[in-house]
């Protein structure tokens, strides 16, 4: 039987200025990119396959950004 975790309430103060929002978005994107990179590095497969996977992730992200249009 799984234990139930206690609820945790978190207060988050988001940036109010456009510059602050852009900085937050940039930091989040950097953390996300680093996480993806580290996860790919830990995979148990050849380096060439990791490179293909990373290229596919980059292409998918670019397609999302442009609405699915070719680069």
Brief overview:
This protein is 61% helix and 0% strand. It has 71 residues and is mainly alpha-helical.
In what range is the share of β-strand residues?
under 5%
- pLDDT < 50 runs, ≥5 residues: none
Shape, please? flat
Count of distinct strands: 0
What is the H-and-E element order?
HH
**DSSP summary: helix tally:** 2
Helix/sheet category: mainly alpha
Main sheet: strands, sense, barrel: none
Helix content: 55-70%
Radius of gyration: 18 Å
3D structure, described in words:
With 71 residues, this protein is mainly α. Helix content is 61%, strand content 0%. It contains two helices and no strands. The protein has helices at residues 18-41, 47-65. The protein is flat, with a radius of gyration of 18 Å.
What's the layout of helices and strands?
Blueprint: H1 18-41, H2 47-65
Helix pairs in contact: 1-2
List keywords for this structure.
2 helices; mainly alpha; 71 residues
């Amino acid at each position: 039987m799984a234990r139930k975790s206690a609820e945790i309430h978190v207060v988050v103060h988001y940036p109010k200025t456009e510059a602050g929002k852009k900085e937050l978005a940039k930091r989040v994107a950097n953390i996300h990119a680093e996480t993806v990179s580290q996860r790919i590095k830990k995979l148990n497969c050849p380096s060439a396959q990791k490179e293909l996977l990373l290229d596919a992730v980059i292409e998918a992200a670019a397609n999302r950004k442009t609405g699915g249009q070719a680069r």
